Amino acid sequence: MAGAGAPLPVAYQAWTSLAVPDWLNKGDNAWQMVSATLVGIQSMPGLVILYGSIVKKKWAVNSAFMALYAFAAVVICWVTWAYKMSFGDKLLPFWGKAGPALGQKFLIKQAALPATPHYYNTGALETAEIEPYYPMATMVWFQCVFAAIAVVILAGSVLARMNFKAWMMFVPLWLTFSYTIGAFSLWGGGFLFQWGVMDYSGGYVIHLSSGVAGFTAAYWVGPRSKKDRERFPPNNVLLTLTGAGLLWLGWAGFNGGDPYSANIDSSMAVLNTNVCAATSLLVWTWLDVIFFNKPSVIGAVQGMITGLVCITPAAGLVQGWAAIVMGVLSGSVPWYTMMVLGKKLTIFQIVDDTLAVFHTHAVAGLLGGILTGFLAEPRLSSLFLAVTNSRGAVYGGSAGGVQILKQLVGGLFVIGWNLVATSIICVVVKLVVPLRMTDEELLIGDDAVHGEEAYALWGDGEKLSLYKDDTTQHGMAMASSGATQVV
């Protein structure tokens, strides 16, 4: 082995020059991969833990497994066809051409690199030509975890009654025919991107779409059992806080990674994200105390989530004071729609949205998108997409009012598409397998659906076998004494 001061072998030097070319920005590449990992942790284990603990004990395994399955399924679909549909060549103004993204291609070539990303003007349409200095594989993985968490969030609306086989079919269909549409339209160079609708990190692409789609799917699947709707306590509040904590801290990658560079904008986005989330949590908690005389831990988690969601479309586009304003509104507007309108309006009684995803993601995401039109700071907007005439209404000029209109139209497009596409997908899946579990499965829960239990404690909805040879599909038997044995 060569000594510490000895020159490296020629073959090693040649390999290194290929693996780390001159154009590669190792800092940006490292931050992008770290950001992707943080976003991935939000889903798995973050939402897996949160879902498995915030539901009734008999649904802990099923709820966690729905999130875990969705994450894995999206990864394969994404690299096989969905990435190119979201960020590839244009097929339609709102959709890209499908194709695999499994090679080791690079996003840019070595020749004629500009010192900074450059931009071009196409008449009335101003478009950013984004050229981050790292491999395509980094971008594929970064965008993959965003797609995955969108589907996992959607799952929160249909927990505790959706047939798992139906969920297995639903995930790739919704990713293909709904998520990729919003991603290409707003991020991949589609018509909303060209028009100047701003969605910094997924307030529309992820949260508004998953919230609307989840509510729509909940309508088609049908409600939980009457017993579960009447009483649905969390089985472990401390684990819920653990999942929520992973979600909160993982958001540093969610918003901090979207400038595609470790730059000034990413730092501003991370700070704004935490400021808005903290403000929203405090406002939601105080509203609970004022109107219900009790501070709720689950309510605080809801307020945290609405703050994170609301700031997402604006995280790198607004100043710190605006993040506080958005936190106040994200802690109060979704609180009102959930705690007041949710108990008064008939639609919320008919549609059983298990974890109130409509309020925490759809309402908060749309709110954040509209507030972006009011509060986006011109210089920060130009740092993100260099759409030089973009500015929030508070900064004056006719462009501010136009930007609000753009944000409204963008939100309406995402809402309309998800209502229609999700409905069609549910109808198609229903032709193959039932969308809802059987009454017996709804009564028993995890043990009937998966043959597994989250906790070795007997309780609600579980069956105790009295026969030694009565085994489950995973080889566990119950002796007459009640002790668990491995056979």
From TrEMBL:
- What parts of the sequence cross the membrane? 30-52, 64-83, 140-160, 167-192, 204-222, 234-254, 266-285, 297-315, 321-342, 354-376, 408-433
Pfam families hit by this protein? Ammonium_transp (PF00909)
Compartments, as annotated in UniProt: Cell membrane
This chain belongs to which protein, by name?
Ammonium transporter
Q: Which GO terms describe its biological process?
A: response to symbiotic fungus
Q: Which residues form the Ammonium transporter AmtB-like domain?
A: 30-455
Recorded hits in PROSITE patterns, A to Z, give: AMMONIUM_TRANSP (PS01219)
For whether the record's keyword set contains Glycoprotein, the answer is yes
* Keyword tags: Ammonia transport, Cell membrane, Glycoprotein, Membrane, Transmembrane, Transmembrane helix, Transport
Give the species.
Arachis duranensis
> Do you know which InterPro entries this protein is assigned to?
Ammonium/urea_transptr, Ammonium_transpt, Ammonium_transpt_CS, NH4_transpt_AmtB-like_dom, RhesusRHD
What membrane topology does this protein have?
A: Multi-pass membrane protein
Cellular component GO terms held in the UniProt record: plasma membrane
Family listed: Belongs to the ammonia transporter channel (TC 1.A.11.2) family.
* SUPFAM superfamilies listed in its UniProt record: Ammonium transporter (SSF111352)
| UniProt GO MF annotations | ammonium channel activity
